[in-house]
Amino acid sequence: QVQLVESGGGSVQAGGSLRLACSASGSIFAIYAMGWYRQAPGKQRELVAKINNGEMTNYADSVKGRFTISRDSAKNTVFLQMNSLKPEDTGVYYCNANHRHYAYDFWGQGTQVTVSS
To answer: pLDDT (tens digit, 9 = 90+) per residue, 56-72?
Structure first.
């Protein structure tokens, strides 16, 4: 099993920045990708950004050029730097991990991000 703990959410005005962190523990040796998803009220959860063990990244079109995903492998932590935040970025942000030995994904508990106009 894998445990994911997010931190760094909060409230910010439009144009501001936040940095989210996700710390992984447990059976982390076989994690091959980690990412961030978000869910706004009344909407489905959507992919924001993902990074794999080869450091390849992909982003939702809506955040390209504003958000950056990175990781510190030594600390088993993934970060999401969010700049130029917009009100439409508001939602609960969830950390996600894909594991070679499990058919299902692992999820964190979520952290709230609120961007006011």
So the answer is: 999 999 999 999 999 99
